[in-house]
Amino acid sequence: MTIDAPIAPVGAALDAATEADLQQKAKDHLWMHFARQSGMEAGNGVPIIVRGDGHHIYDSQGKKYIDGLSGLFVVQVGHGRERLAEAARKQAEELAFFPLWSYAHPTAIELADKLADYAPGDLNRVFFTTGGGEAVESAWKLAKQYFKLTGKPMKHKVISRAIAYHGTPQGALAITGIPGMKEMFEPLTPGGFRVPNTNYYRAEEMGFHGSLEEFGQWAANRIEEAILFEGPDTVAAVFLEPVQNSGGCFPPPPGYFQRVREICDQYDVLLVSDEVICAYGRIGEMFACTALGYVPDIITSAKGLTSGYSPLGAMIVSDRIYEPFKHGQTAFYHGYTFAGHPVSAAVALENIAIMEEEGILAHVRENSPKFRAALERLLDIPIVGDVRGEGYFFGIELVKNKETKETFNADESERLLRGFLSKALFDAGLYCRADDRGDPVIQLAPPLTIGPAEFDEIERILRAVLTEASNRL
């Protein structure tokens, strides 16, 4: 089933002169994010995506691709939604911009109210940002100030998991657990410490042997161990994604977050649910912590809040954490010019309305097992070691030896992922992510509107390309 609504019929490819002009301008002036510039410098050019339609994107040559990553875990309701474009147009005509610095505007107020209604427990206060990294940065700053205001000024450290990604600002990068993404920017903000992640497929390499449920308790208890080692009077917060993105979609074992919540309560440490990817339907609920049965102190979010039609992030905070800021001259001296932008907030409200009217959350919950089953058919390919994830968020880990779980070394991973898979999958009509932050994985997070027919199509493309990759090895 597909519930996409395109703005207009797909256009033709760009003419050769326009294509050449854009490629030259890109080579001369465009600095791409998280990308090697050498491809453009060598004259190979860059894929230019010119439009989107439902769960498809189209390049400047007129070729059609399945958007298997929702842009970047963003386009929840699909490309080309006329309603979202119209909501942006209407709001821009009425009030294009005004800041939230001591003032407010209707769309930010209405959106804050809507998000508070969906957030669990007493998470009733919404602080808008421009994106996910800024939401994480805001949460760490808030945690530090909160404990200063409540008489515990030494609580400033944060704990996160190995290989976890939490953003690029200096503070968020210090929380990030990927050494290769941090070393070139060191020294970073001090105070970030790491614990094991929840990759059960690699649990034995972490020194654990036992059942999945036991692994959940073991992994959670490593957080308590870290708090005690650093000193409970110095640890402010634990930052955890509901399903960890980097490394390839690590879901939490049963009971993991319930144990983490107990630990945080015991030592007065804030639990931050980093839902920049997992919120807004990706795991089948508006907030993934609801799907997984825990109530954090803070939720950080962005991406799918507007389905990418306009930039916006949000930090959602419990009444308990907000309490010290309600009185006297106390203020949280922090903010962003474009946070809670009227146009972005209007788009977010319309995006949530689409989700509600079309039953997107129930659609994800109903179809997630079918998506998993389609991907698990790939386990008969020699290099496919593990399929894992939740909702519409899955990772496929690739291995050199399925029996031993032996992974690829750095050179082999480079040849496999960048030398073959990334281009081969794209050429075959599937845009997704082939990544080696951790062990080599292929990640899939398509728009939340697709269904079994599209799952089968994705599986067919993956099967052909992964089989060829396996044969090459």
UniProtKB/TrEMBL annotation:
Keywords: Aminotransferase, Pyridoxal phosphate, Transferase. It comes from the Bacteria. Signal peptide: none annotated. One of its GO terms (molecular function) is transaminase activity. CDD domains: OAT_like. Pfam families: Aminotran_3. InterPro entries: Aminotrans_3, Aminotrans_3_PPA_site, PyrdxlP-dep_Trfase, PyrdxlP-dep_Trfase_major, PyrdxlP-dep_Trfase_small. Belongs to the class-III pyridoxal-phosphate-dependent aminotransferase family. This is Aspartate aminotransferase family protein.
